[in-house]
Amino acid sequence: MSFEFPIRKIIHVDMDAFYASVEQLDHPELKGKPIAVGGGAKRGVVAAASYEARKFGVRSAMSGVLAAKLCPELIFVKPRFDRYKEISSRIRSIFFDYTDKVEPLSLDEAYLDVTSNMAGNPSASLIASEIRRRIFEEVGLTASAGISVNKFIAKVASDINKPNGQKTIEPEEVIPFLEDLDIRKFYGVGKVTAEKMYQLGIFTGKDMKDKSLEFLEEHFGKSGIHYYEVVRGIHRSEVRSHRIPKSLGAERTFSENLSSEVFMKDRLGLIAEELARRVAKAGTSARTVTLKIKYSDFTLQTRSRTLPYFISDKDLILDTALDLLYQQPLDNSVRLLGISLSNLRGKDASHEGEKSVSVQLRLEL
What we know:
This protein has 365 residues and is α+β, with helices and mostly antiparallel strands. It folds into four domains: 4-17 and 82-170, Reverse transcriptase/Diguanylate cyclase domain (Alpha-Beta Plaits, 2-Layer Sandwich), CATH 3.30.70; 18-80, MutS, DNA mismatch repair protein, domain I (3-Layer(aba) Sandwich), CATH 3.40.1170; 174-239, 5' to 3' exonuclease, C-terminal subdomain (DNA polymerase, domain 1), CATH 1.10.150.20; 247-344, DNA polymerase, Y-family, little finger domain (Dna Ligase, domain 1), CATH 3.30.1490. Helices cover 36% and strands 24% of the residues. The protein has 13 helices and 14 strands. A hairpin with a 4-residue loop joins strand 11 (286-295) and strand 12 (300-311). The longest helix has 22 residues, at 261-282. Pfam families: IMS, IMS_C, IMS_HHH. Mg(2+) binds at residues 14, 108. Its main location: cytoplasm.
């Protein structure tokens, strides 16, 4: 049987330890030292860790307390997001020298579709190499890249030779690569789904590929179709230059834990105001509001409500968040509050009319 996927040459560029690398670039005295960008050893969370810190097990989203225990020599640096945005903008300008089809995922990574490109270069691998060289020469940072026939495989490939490397998965290598891939690397397979797959004897792409569509649908519902296709190299998602995010959010970590709902209402007002600005900038609105609460013991709780109408106004966002706050008693004092919006207006998941080619096609990358 022949399986098909769209003809594309996709590059996924991922900056190496971006926030930490920017700090080491701007402060040479930090080079070669374990640093964490974040709130510090007593409060806050690690936003990024240098490779020197990662050797000790320090990772992003880890509490500063735990990070300091793992690496006693760890240097905490306050984040400077304006600077990171400035550097990110310079890097993206390099991308646009090669293609208009650039889809940023965050400040430090993006997809590029170079099937047709401004350089007139038929080799996506050479383009990726040139982009990485220019980033290093013009910005002073290293980047890694993955190159393949679709976004999923390119993203997985970009992690293989990190830091400061790249990996190309040629069309004829796609199926063997996916068959050997750990099941946890596949889109949509989180911790809970991975455990379920283990119980069903699915540990690699090959194990998943051996299962019938009926079997995967029976155990994983609509996601079964996705698993059935992606393990065969079928991933139809295009590189979208004006990508609509799945959600928008804002949150605050407090210097002192809050126990009074009066103070929380005041903080939520500021968060709602910031979120409303982001919604206006994105030119969208949303139906689902989620309140995020992190307690002083680091346990996390979320409360959500889907409205029958779309909202973008600060007052409506705040009113819904307060309803969620008051719907049940708090478990403890609070160290972080956040509001996020999802179910955004204008999300387009259509993939009709895409040109396809069988996986056996020789398409030089």
